[in-house]
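A common beginner's mistake is to predict each chain separately and then try to dock the pieces by hand. The better habit, illustrated here, is to supply every component at once so that their relative placement is modeled jointly.
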Amino acid sequence: MLMMKRQTGLSLIELMIGITIGLIIIAGVTSVYVATIGSSSDALAAARLNQELRAAMQVMTRDIRRAGFWGGAEPGDIDNPFTRDDTNLTVDGSSCILYTYDANNSGDIDYDNPGQWFGFTLTDDGAIGTLQGIAAGGTRTTADCSVWIFQRVTDPDFVTVTNLVFETDNYQCQNTTEATRNDCYNATPGDTSDDPVTDDYIVEGRQIDITIEAELANDPTVSASLATSVKVRNNRLYQQP
Amino acid sequence: MTSAGVRIMIRNRTLQHRQQGAASLLIALVLLVGVTLITLYTAQTMIMEQRIAANDIRAREAFEAAEAGRMHGARYADMPGANMASTLAEDLDSDGTDDYSVTFLSLGSGRYQIQSQGWSFDRTATATVFQQTGTNAYIANTPQQPLITRSFASDQGNVAITNNYTNQTVWSGGEFSNIGSADTYINVNGTDNVKASDKNNVGPDVIQNDPNLANATDHDFFNNFFSMSMSEMQASANFNSLPNDPADAAGSLIWIDGDLSMQSNGVYGSADEPVILIVDGDLSIHGGPEIWGIVYVTGNMNSGGNPDIYGSAIVAGNVTGNGTVDIIYTPSVFNPSEPLGEDIEVAGTWRDW
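With all components supplied together, the output reads:
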């Protein structure tokens, strides 16, 4: 009977060694777990941010490239209704672009048809917006972004677009009236001899350089920027006023 | 106690020890399962991301291939004698399948709509773009006379000038009677080839001593007839020397920089596919070529042969020599079904939908 009452549990030393080994194992596994979660969430966030930016950029480049299409174009006819002063592709400020094209191949601009007016902007709450309609009482023009209503195409709860820039610095322009006045943007500053004069015919090739900078709304340390250039395929022809 | 009883007790105690310490294992196992699930989810998302990026690249490939086809089509349309009923295709990556296919739709008077379809290299994505081309005609003002010269020289050769259409044969800044020997023929009351003038009897079909023509600068004289400056015309010429096979010249602009000595007896151009031959220098003709279209010479035209020109000869200098030049006004060469000119892309006609 005495023999049966002998303690059968662990000794103190056995217990401490066991606890120590257990803790080391759990700590190791936990650190692997935490590291995996951290890197996975970073990778997922970066991937989603990239996707969001790429999609927005693709939508913009594909559409801006069409600016100035005119269903009624004839050789030598320079009065394209989609490149007039109030319908021409215009960057208002630096983060809003407005343009028109003949989406329904009708041959003329229709000031009442919202389907021929297009644009993108950076909205106040940090999203990219696409032109949706005209504000009440506004006059349709590509010169002024404030008369238009924009619909968000990115989710401001997820991605904050911190900067959207449309640049027109790489426009190219040729004066076709006089071979000697090739560059009509004042090629040599201070020398007016090569500037276009009234009634000269000008061909303007438009290149828009787009830059988007964005960060995650809930983690501003994850940020990305994307830049691309789009050549508007339809050149603008006009007579120097 | 027997030794067997002690052995059993030891075994029992050992077994009890083995059943303890599973907590660490279970916790580690749960965490590792969690890590596995998260890794799988991330991998799936990243694969999706890669697929989207790959699709994006394929879409770009297809679009760029279509654009390459459009540009190919636009250059092709500008070539003289281009067969606009043909389909252009190109295998850009040499994998045995074409990466773009271009067709032309005629819109009349030399206008075409180019339709270019491009594919990505793996042929899963496709894109189509459209562009119209039109002709920027070289001829701004159709010459109304078979022979237009700034002046005449007394060592003129034999010239026979016929115009059965507009009844004007010569337009000159000089005096027609200075000419060596020339006869003009017009249509009178429905009868073709009626003699109208020679050097001693100048009829109303000859406009002479026009000071506007005599005093015109080279540039103005040139732009009386052509829509572009001389340097632009030179830049868009199809040939810079006479093609070896005269048949190649049909429908083309030939710009000779310097003097040209023409020995050929060939036929250059035709009534519906005329040529514009511009010699920026002196032209001397020794053979008997037949030229349909416009011959423009900035210097003198010297004929030791017997050329036939169907259309109009425009000479900024003199017509000299001892050969015989026949110039027959032919209106069709000024209005061929495919106007002579630079085929350019019409602004405002590019679309991809």
